[in-house]
Amino acid sequence: MDKIAVLTSGGDAPGMNAAIRAVVRAGLYSGFQVFGVLHGLQGLIQGNWVDMKLGSVADIIHRGGTILKTSRSSEFMEIEGRITAYHNLQRKKIDNLVIIGGNGSLTGGWEISKLGINVIGIPATIDNDIAETVSIGFDTAVNTILEAINRIRDTASSHGRVFIIEVMGRHCGEIALSAGVAGGAESILIPEINNNLREVVNKIEQGVQRGKLYSIILVAEGAGPAYEIKEFLAEQTGMEVKVIILGHIQRGGTPSAADRILASVMGKAAVDNINEGRKNVMIAGGGYNVEAVSLEQTLKKSKQVRNDLISLAHVLAT
Ligand code: F6P
Predict the structure, then answer these.
(1) Predicted local confidence at residue 260, as pLDDT
(2) Which residue segments constitute the domains of the chain, with CATH numbers given?
(3) What is the rounded distance in angstroms from the CA atom of residue 312 to the CA atom of residue 309?
(4) Which of 134, 176, 218, 248 could be bridged to 286 by S-S, CB 3.0 to 4.6 A?
């Protein structure tokens, strides 16, 4: 019987469980034996497997985190670690490996594919920083941030304060940009562009002149540090400025409908691609529409900055 191993790796993202469920159920439906690898790429090195049955993935579609657990494996970044992982897969006669994770995890996947394992990548990271696709977890994280913005807006408007909300995203501004547009932020600072703090001051002051006594500023973690921006804004505007760092709250919680659907569609597509004999691809797309793209080529590309969203945010915040 042909075999598939599935694992989650890197930062957890809401919807990973829905993706695991889809890979396991679609894999079993197609007649594969499916193994779950515990603790991500590190678990491959340790040979940490569980035999997955239909019931193994019952009652998880709505849960955040990952039932397979995850890790950031520095050992896997070394060739020795990958060779050990490869031998473990060979011993188990597993030819197909589905990796659910972000950029680093999929890059690890590409590296082990060079040793002769067929790797199918499923993009899952709240950062949404993988080229050519929406990543599982992004939609939920943005919605979590919107909930926080709504609450902060109440207190910000009551006191007439400036709030800087720092969101995750590593080197990418996707989260800040989407949450900023959807949350009606006055300014959005992202790492991909040169942020002009003078413009932020002007926006705050223009708001005050037309009677808007508070401001919400979204800062991607890669465009911080938020506390330095706070010092500058407080000094320049003379207003009270507060910083909120949302941190790992953004990674948890029940996945949104959009993430559950994307995860289910991508998980099934991963198995379909194995069935169709495609090798070393990443499932890419959004919503119900996904396709297989080259894992190697996609990882070489960087995510394009959403200039349309930047100018939209600018126009709507004037
Ligand atoms: O990649 C997801 C992410 O949450 C980034 O936004 C953040 O920079 C990083 O992971 C935090 O990593 P850790 O949970 O290992 O501290």
Answers:
(1) 98
(2) 3-137+255-299 (3.40.50.450), 139-252 (3.40.50.460)
(3) 5
(4) 134
